[in-house]
């Protein structure tokens, strides 16, 4: 019983209901999440789970789902420079991006991830609504790190996430 309580305190398994991180994780697959992991454990290219701001969820998902969580790939930590094409940035995010930009000697525009935030991206650009659409995500919106793909109800082996 104590093992179960500890397990449920630190881990949760989820079933994916989106394809934004496809082909890494497909809709219907299960993932084990390390809940509320320390910020210092975050690494680029990890798959993380986050809760977008309410306006982000309303625009691209069911507005009645206030608890909607997303799996995304972490591509930028505080201070990282992310190449930005302003022609592809949604209007809600343009003001956010314009506050922290750098232009290099070749004229390329970079967004600098601000302190206390991460920059996320889906593996499936056609179906991903991510930081390129809504800007950086505050640490307070992060809910955990994806650890491993769990076997489906029909298979018997797990797969690492990265």
Structural class: alpha+beta
Order of helices and strands: HEEEHEEHEEEHEEE
Number of helices: 4
Which regions are unreliable across 5 or more consecutive residues at pLDDT < 50?
none
Largest sheet: 8 strands, antiparallel
State the distance separating the first and last CA atoms. Answer: 31 Å
Overall structural domain count: 1
Record the SSE blueprint.
Elements: H1 2-10, E1 11-15, E2 30-35, E3 47-50, H2 54-60, E4 70-76, E5 81-83, H3 91-98, E6 101-103, E7 109-112, E8 117-121, H4 131-134, E9 137-138, E10 142-150, E11 159-160
Antiparallel strand pairs: 1-2, 2-10, 3-4, 3-10, 4-8, 5-7, 6-7, 8-9, 10-11
Q: What does this entry look like structurally?
A:
It is a single chain. By secondary structure, the chain is of the alpha+beta class. The chain has a single domain (2-76, 118-160), classed as Umud Fragment, subunit A (Ribbon), CATH 2.10.109. It is 17% helix and 31% strand. It has 4 helices and 11 strands, in the order αβββαββαβββαβββ. The chain has helices spanning 2-10, 54-60, 91-98, 131-134; strands at 11-15, 30-35, 47-50, 70-76, 81-83, 101-103, 109-112, 117-121, 137-138, 142-150, 159-160. Strands 1, 2, 3, 4, 8, 9, 10 and 11 form an 8-stranded antiparallel beta sheet that branches. Strands 5-7-6 form a 3-stranded antiparallel beta sheet, with no helix packed on it. A hairpin with an 8-residue loop joins strand 10 (142-150) and strand 11.
